[in-house]
């Protein structure tokens, strides 16, 4: 199939992009890397009258430190998460996740902002935003606002972005010297969407696990924070007992969909296995 014919706009500013969207009276889509949208257009799962291309907007570009935060422009490519020195140093969970996202051709076009705006519950980067305690900067009719990851992911493909708003940047708290992290996923083949995946960002506290955030993907309608498992692990030496307790607690944190390929009980089992691997990977000592 081919996409339905559409008009194309390439604005240079956020205001112009918003105006182009508004002029289509809701029958428009923003496009960034196109790696999710173009297949959806080709299959006519979406058929907007107007595509508003965000690629010409300078405000969506660049990676830079702003005090204790790393600002990652929404147009930053998946591939940049592997190579950008600031991302590697200060948002290492993104760098750890990037090789697992699709394939090089898609990573060269797909943007971090597009992935986080789409908020596929099986995607790596949105869940890592949750694990890192990131904040999303959104442009809307009232101007710019920042929404913490804990409030941003609301339901299946539903975020704090309302139609017509633009995700401008991802703000990640910089990683300090006592932080450690782990990322992993279980997929049938490398590059496939994971059956289960997750990441942990934790403080080292004299051989024990200090404050930590755990986020999973492919285990519910949104990226899921594992708060019960976090509570169990806080203050513990990451030994076999702590891991077993956390694995038991994890059941309350996740809400896997039941599908034929990966039934919910299997996803729960895989999530427990993955949590054990993630905790063992943490360099707490
Ligand atoms: C074969 C294949 C395999 C893939 N495998 C994986 C995988 O393993 N893991 C994974 O996470 N992803 C995977 N993807 C998806 C890929 O990562 C997408 O690139 C990404 O999800 C979307 O980023 P994009 O820049 O291409 O967004 P686009 O496709 O341009 O847009 C996606 C959606 O977000 C909206 N949007 C985009 N940018 C903004 C913005 N700044 N503000 C507001 N709304 C915006 C668009 O309107 C659209 O609805 C795969 C894709 C393909 C084709």
From TrEMBL:
MF-aspect GO terms: FAD binding; oxidoreductase activity
Superkingdom of source: Bacteria
SMART domains hit by this protein: CO_deh_flav_C
Keywords (A to Z) from UniProt: FAD, Flavoprotein, Oxidoreductase
Cited InterPro entries: CO_DH_flav_C, CO_DH_flav_C_dom_sf, Diverse_Substr_Oxidored, FAD-bd_PCMH, FAD-bd_PCMH-like_sf, FAD-bd_PCMH_sub1, FAD-bd_PCMH_sub2, Mopterin_DH_FAD-bd
Family matches, as Pfam families: CO_deh_flav_C, FAD_binding_5
Domain FAD-binding PCMH-type: 1-177
Protein name (record): Xanthine dehydrogenase family protein subunit M
Species the sequence originates in: Xanthobacter dioxanivorans
């Amino acid at each position: 199939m081919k996409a339905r014919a559409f008009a194309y706009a390439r604005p240079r500013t956020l205001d112009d992009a918003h105006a182009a969207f508004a002029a289509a009276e809701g029958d428009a889509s923003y496009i960034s890397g196109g790696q999710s949208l173009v297949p959806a257009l080709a299959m006519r799962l979406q058929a907007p009258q107007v595509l508003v291309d965000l690629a010409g907007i300078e405000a969506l570009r660049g990676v830079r430190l702003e005090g204790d935060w790393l600002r990652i422009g929404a147009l930053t490519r998946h591939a940049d998460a592997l190579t950008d020195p600031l991302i590697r140093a200060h948002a290492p969970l993104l760098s750890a996740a990037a090789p697992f996202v699709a394939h090089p051709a898609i990573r060269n076009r797909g943007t971090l902002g597009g992935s986080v705006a789409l908020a596929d519950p099986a995607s790596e980067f949105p869940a890592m935003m949750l694990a890192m305690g990131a904040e999303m900067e959104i442009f809307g009719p009232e101007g710019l606002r920042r929404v913490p990851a804990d409030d941003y992911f609301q339901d299946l493909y539903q975020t704090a972005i309302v139609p017509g708003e633009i995700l401008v940047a991802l703000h990640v708290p910089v990683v300090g010297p006592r932080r450690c992290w782990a990322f992993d996923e279980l997929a049938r083949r490398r590059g496939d969407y994971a059956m289960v995946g997750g990441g942990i960002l934790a403080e080292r506290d004299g051989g024990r696990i200090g404050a930590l955030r755990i986020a999973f993907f492919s285990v519910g309608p949104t990226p899921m924070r594992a708060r019960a498992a976090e509570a169990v692990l806080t203050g513990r030496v990451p030994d076999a007992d702590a891991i077993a307790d956390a694995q038991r607690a994890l059941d309350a944190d996740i809400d896997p969909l039941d599908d034929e390929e990966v039934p919910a009980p299997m996803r729960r089992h895989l999530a427990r296995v993955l949590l054990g691997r993630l905790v063992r990977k943490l360099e707490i000592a």
